[in-house]
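Researcher: Please generate the 3D structure of the following complex. Treat every line as part of one assembly.
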Amino acid sequence: MKTRSITLYVNGEAYSLNVAVNRTLLQVLREDLGMPETKYGCGTGECGACTVVVDGGKSILACLTLAATMDGAKITTAAGLETDGKLNPIQEAFISEHAVQCGYCTPGMVMKSVSILAKNPKPTEEEIRRELEGNICRCTGYVKIVQAIQKASEVMASTR
Amino acid sequence: MSEFAVVGKRIPKIDAKEKITGRAMYAADLVFPGMLYGKIVRCLKYAHAKVTKLDLSEAAKVPGVVKVLGPKDVTQKGYNTGVLDLMVPEPVGQMLGDIEEQYVFTDWVKHQGDAIAGIIAKTEEAAECAAEKIVVEYEPLPVYLTAEESSKPDAVQFSPLKAGNKAFELPAMMFPNNIYGWGDAEAEMKNADLIVENTFYTPKCKQCQMEPHAYVAYFDDQGRINCWTSTQMPKCVHAKIARLFQLPMTKVKINQTVVGGGFGGRLGMIGEPETCAMAMAVPGKYVKVQYLREEDWIASESRHPGKYYMKMGFKNDGTPVACQAHFTSYKGAYYTHGSGVAFTTGSWLVGMYKFGALNYKGDTYFTNQAPCGAYRSYGNAQTSIAMEQTVDEMCYKLGLDPVEWRMKWHKGVGDDGWCLGFKYPSCALDECLRRGAEAIGWKEKRAKYANQTGVKRRGVGVAVMNHTSGAMPMLLEHTTVTVKVNEDASAEVILSCSDLGTGAHTALKMIAAETLGFGMDDVHLLTGNSDASGFDIGAHASRTCYVGGGAVKTACEDVKRQLFDRAARQLEANIDDLDMKDKMIFVKGSPDKAIPVQQITAMGVYNFVDPATGKTIGIPGQIQGYASHFAPHNSPPFAACFVEVEVDIETGEVKVLEAVQAYDIGRAIHPPSCEGQNEGALQQGMGMALMEEIYYDKNGLALNSSFTDYKMPGPADMPKWTNILVEDPDPIGPYGAKSAGEGALANPPGAVLNAIHNAIGIMMTEAPATPEKILKAIKEKGIK
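Model: Done. Output below.
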């Protein structure tokens, strides 16, 4: 298997890697970089549990992304949202609105929320629900997740 | 002003932060030094076949492969992945006919996905390459997909112990004439003015928890097998793994990892036997086994699907005269929960309405599909589809309002619940029906939708349910709790109860903090460690708050009694004259006669002997509270679910517009978690009613083992939602609580289907009511 030298910037830190070209970003994050917060839910791009954010706002599915194509990318995972131990408004809202049950979809949901609000700081409920369609949750029925995103949107608007 | 310090408060869940930051460790996240990877090799080509040749030699040569294991290379003991057999006394288990016919690796494939071999390698990739090099030949056998097929006299027998492939039926020794219920329904039916009779089909739904199955096992240098698993039942798995590998329980350590959803799918064992077998083959090496998502549908247990015959007889004024019902389910390939769902499906029917006579029969037959096990509400969702639609059919025919009829005829306080002889201690169903009907606008909408024309037709439906809080007296409901009080008056609460994401651990900690009079930060819950904790049967039958919480309360009351006893001695007061506030124990009426709790606990640990006098300074003994708690009842919760749908009569598509669940919770220990259970259950209930089913081709191969093809309602499909928690404290549950975990999935299926019936005037007897089936029904029966 051919390999490629890449540099990934993950949560603000640079990682120089030599990856086999068939390794996914999910495998590289979890196994090579020891970052298990990005989850394997299906491995086929159908559930969204592996959602990470690139360049501050775009959400991608790590299980369908070849790491070799991500040279130079600035990637944020669920572990990279805190600042000096302080949670960001989306994380706070997931807690305050009780939007977490088993937690397995949560890192992906939170990252998707980051990209939703980066694209559109004041989404309607319908827009939120449409955007979330690629992220499956089996525990919450999505009720409190949507409420959390709405709360985060309000908080972020008021602190702008 | 709440009467409680902690109970009932909307505090954040204790595990929310670690799940949001991604730091919560699920089994697949675990990494150990020198860890190997195990792959379970499955037969994917056939649903029923004998393995006539298995040659692992080429697979063993693949670089990176450490060991290859066939059926003869591992324990030959049979087992049952379900744990129901641990929850009945052995004589009862024998009477029920529970069997242990599953093997770690098999040479007789009984369903697509059955495990035939195991490979241990240094990388997952090497193991996968090796799997492709396995040489296996099969002798295909006939495939049976229904009870009708497998019960034929010439069918291949799945087990010599089960004639006619009937895995289970209600045993006549416990149920005369194999019937559960009361009276002679056949005879009473003759007194009915109206009879409604149908056979319903309830589908094979999958729990689809978001965490795929993953395990790590390690056979250490003390001869202990250590297993990391997200099972719902750690102490039961502890006992089963010990039995399977013929080890004393002290040589087995089960570490329960964070559970990424269960819904009953993890009620017992899934991949623990294979993973432990692999670890025992490579002593001193950690072995990790990770299931692919697609394995979930074919290699772990689903809901029991089947045919549900229901006949109800009524007087013209609606009086329920008699009910005869028979649920025949397709068991799948192995016995697992054979004696469970076949019985409980009828028990929820038994608990609901005041029929003059009610006779239920339940049986289940082997088929060549993924085995069936436990799925949230355990037969109640199936009963909802049949029972609630039959009641509504009667209401239409007799011109009665479905809400009013249910209010009049549901069972309540003092009536027999799902287990005859055990009467309901509490029931707030009337208030649930009243408030739910008001919330959805029942009267207005039923009137408005009575006469519709046009392509879009709307309807509102209702369905009620009774469930349970733990399965006492049918099953063992035993939980042990130890409360270890540290010298600084903080406490460790040690138990084996599970939290599948439900918030159960948060609720248990709240119960502990409330009972002790300590703050939440002064209490720590230690769970999921089979060395530390005593017996508990795990998360099933919605028992954790009611039985586990009851045990926690009892153990904490034990601590409090010991604290008061010592305080009484120190203060030279009567124990009955003492009270506690802000961790200070004082004499009522003389608050200056007080001693801090922390002083008592410190003195208990640091009990000094004065060398000069030989006298003790302080009160000796570290305080520990203990409870070996057997549930005294099963206080069933009730609920009323209302649903409004819009049916497109040209495309057959159903949109769920609005839903209300009014739930008789007793007391909501942690209200956001109770709400969360109702909210998630609605999604699963809508799925069962409208779209979810595992499809098989005629060869028994699953057709939709992916999220794309196993359709579940998504965020844009969910309706306008109202959650009503009716708090009418139960006299027995801890702080009045009844269960929340499963009941909320019992009634949405019936409510959705009843709403469709109201919209188009047709009862959909086959779930899921897909657009295709709705169009076919409209074509055959005509639209109202």
